[in-house]
Each structure stands twice: as structure tokens, then as C-alpha cells.
Amino acid sequence: MMMNQAEMMARHGLKEWMNETNKVMKELSYSIQKISAGELVEDEQIVAYIESLQNEKGSWNSVGQEHLFNSKTEELPYYAFDAYIRGIVRWMNELGMMTMMCCDGHGERHAYVEMDGFLNDRQMHVLNLAIPSDSAVRIRFRKNRRRHTVLFDYSQTERKALLDIAEMLFKMSNDERYIQMLETERFKHRLLDWLEVPGESGREQKVRRRLTSSLRKLTDEQQIDEAGNLLATVRHGEGPTILLSAHMDTVERIKRGRVIHQEGTILTSSEGILGADDRAGIASVLEILERLPMTHFTGTIKVAFTVEEEIGLCGARGINQEFIRDVDAAIVLDRRGTRDIVTGCRGMFDFCEKSYGELFERAGRLVGMDDWKATRNGGSSDAKIFAEFGIPSVNLSIGYRDEHTDFEEVDYCATFETVVLVETVLSHRLIQQNS
């Protein structure tokens, strides 16, 4: 996608001149826009022009003195900052991440931004999102007793990649929806990775090994029960115990050498099943666990990745009873479509009280997804087994269609919206602990 002039300026920490309030920044922006005559110019030209003005105007040369300014109450002297870090610092401040000092590393060492205090989990998540997936820059966070320092590692020839990060942060500060777009795109790559992992019913070993590796980073405890289910626990303070579940098996083996095609937000397979039933559920559970520290949830999350769901719900039936003994509610991620909250099997067997399904509808409304609706007319799934064990359960749509066929597809955007729904339920603490 071609860059526009606002984005070109933003890479260097500048707004278009009519949007600048600081006199020096307004003059600087106006000069650059006048020189460019409305055309896009090379980054190196802008850097050289600003550096020539810094050398010409002694009053601009306050490099290293930014710590004398209070970023919470005063506008920082962005015009004096190092060329390749200026944009990053400005848009970090615009996003509420207040800074004290910065350096772009001058092509000889890492760049850094010293914060005025500590970053929270959400802010660190946003900064990680701002690093393009193909970037030569790697981000690190260093913490002492008073503040965080954000470090940007790059090779000597890759300093310009810092400008790409500035552009991403500008887009985030300019439109909050851009953050969710980036999150959705990154989630797509997680889903694509899992769609390549084979594991039909009874042969889930490879899936389980890979999941075990992921869960070691995201949970406190992991175990494999006698049925072969992979179970995990993460404790997050006092509160309810909630089970998240998806199944590890596919109905048949994923074809070797197949190609996954994308049209819009829809993924399909060139041959055989896609495997989104239930790789979409697996990817979603991992995403929810990764995002958990950014929520207000307090309580315990238990995870059950079950085996042999496709041949009779065998894994769920044989799950370790001690593991689920204290579970207050279950959320299964294995329903076709995009907006179903399944609370029963074919209208004849209820998985939960009506109120449990309704709280997911409420969560949908909280995030502008009013069309999530509870239905008792679902099929058989692990949710039915958990309900038979006395656990209030729902099975949520996870974005796939035409499962078990060569025409299977998944809308990865819809899958990610299910992640957002569950995250909202957790963050708003809508599920209560049973007495």
C-alpha cells in the first residue's frame, strides 16, 4: 500500500504543518512539505534536512536535555531528537507512554527510549505489535526500580527500520481500529501455523508435543491424563475457575503438500480438509492465554486440549475428574459459523442455565458485536460431556464452515472476534465463582 504524506511525515515524528501546535515543529513541518511540493520524498532527504537545521540553529541542539522536560505536562523538543528515534518517541507519548530520554544508537548500538515510569502489559503489547513481522529490529524491555527502558536492537545497516516502527505507532495513535487490525493479522499467522500441524483422531502426539511447549510459557502447570488429554492451569488471583477447551484431533489426516489459499479473510485448502475444526479453537485458546495478563480477570484458568473428539468425544469422556472437580464454568471453542453461543444439544439437552448463555450475549454488546445469540440447537460436542459432569458449559462459534469436507473454510477475522468475546467475558468478570 502506497504511503501518503501524513505517514511520510509521521515516520520522522512530524504532523502535517496545519496540525502542529508547537511553533518550531510547525515551521519545520511546513518547510519539509514546501520542499516536497506535495510529493513523497526519501527518508534520507528528510533526515538530512532536519539535521542541517539542527546544526544551523543552536537553540535546536538540545540533544540529551529532554529529561529536563516533563512529558506529562510539557511538549517535548522533538525537533532536537535523534533522527531515527524521534517518530517512535512522539507517537509513544501520543499513545500515553510518557518518556524521559532517547537515543537512536547512531548506527553503532541499540536505540533506546527511557520511560517516565513503568509500562503496563497492554502498552508493551502495543509496542510489540508495532514491530513489523519482517522487521530487522527486535524489541526488549528492561526494568529497574523506577522505570522501564525500551531497547530496539538492530544491525548497523538497519537503522532505517526504526522509521517503520514510528509509522506503525502513528497509525495506532491515529485510529484505534488499526491496533485490532494488526492483532487480527498476527492471529492469522498463528492460525496458519496450527493448520499445518497434522493429527487425526488417535494420532494427536505431534499436536500435543507442540502444545506442551507453548503451554510451558503460558501456564503454571501442565499434565497429560490417562486418556491422552493435555491439561494445564494458570492461576491469576482469587476468583472463579474457568475451563477453556478445544480438541486436538482432526476428522482425517491433513494432506501433505496441500496449499492454503486466502481470499479476503477466508482460508481454504487446495486439497482435503482445511483442519480448522478444531485448529481454530487451539489457536484461540493460546491467544486468550497470551492476552490474559492484559485483562482484569482474577481467578484460575484451566485448559483442556482433548483427544478423539471426532470419534465419539472420547477424550472429554475420559478426562481426569480431579482436574475438573473445582471448575465453575466451561467455554468450548468448537462451533461452526460466526455468532452462535451453543447452550444445548438439538433443543433436548441443556448445557447450562439460560443466564450463562446470556452473559456471552452481554459481552458481545460490550464490544459492539450485538449479533452473538444463544441457541439450544447445537450439536454434540465436548461441551455436552462437560455439562453431563455438572459444569455449566457453552460452545462458541469459531469461524469455520463445511467442516469434515474438502470445502471447509475458516474466516480468521471471525475466529479472532471469538477471542475478543471470551477476553471480554474474562476481563469484565462476568462469570462468578460457585459457592
Based on CA atoms alone, the radius of gyration comes out at 25 Å
Strand content: 15-25%
Please give the share of residues in helix: 25-40%
Described by strand count, sense and barrel closure, the largest sheet is: 8 strands, mixed
Count of individual domains: 2
The rough form would be described as elongated
CATH topology call of the largest domain: Aminopeptidase
pLDDT < 50 runs, ≥5 residues: none
Total strand count, please? 18
Give your account of this protein's structure.
- This protein has 435 residues and is of the alpha+beta class.
- It has two domains: 170 residues, no CATH class; 248 residues, 3-Layer(aba) Sandwich (Aminopeptidase).
- Helix content is 37%, strand content 19%.
- The strands form four sheets. The chain has an eight-stranded mixed sheet with strand order 5-6-10-7-11-16-12-15, with helices on both faces. A four-stranded antiparallel sheet has the order 1-2-4-3, covered by helices on one side.
- Helix 4 packs parallel to helix 6 and helix 12 packs across helix 14.
- The longest helix has 19 residues.
- The N and C termini lie far apart (55 Å).
Task: Give descriptors for this structure.
14 helices; alpha+beta; four-stranded antiparallel beta sheet; about 425 residues; single chain; Aminopeptidase; 2 domains; eight-stranded mixed beta sheet
Summarize the structure.
The protein is of the alpha+beta class and 435 residues long.
Show the helix and strand layout.
Layout: H1 5-10, H2 23-36, H3 43-56, H4 86-94, E1 99-103, E2 111-115, H5 121-129, E3 138-143, E4 148-153, H6 161-174, H7 177-195, H8 205-218, E5 221-224, E6 230-236, E7 241-247, E8 260-263, E9 266-269, H9 276-291, E10 299-306, H10 314-317, H11 321-324, E11 329-335, E12 340-342, E13 344-345, E14 349-350, H12 354-366, E15 373-375, H13 382-388, E16 393-397, E17 400-401, E18 409-411, H14 412-427
Parallel strand pairs: 7-10, 7-11, 11-16, 12-15
Antiparallel strand pairs: 1-2, 2-4, 3-4, 5-6, 6-10, 8-9, 9-18, 12-16, 13-14, 17-18
Helix pairs in contact: 4-6, 7-9, 9-14, 12-14
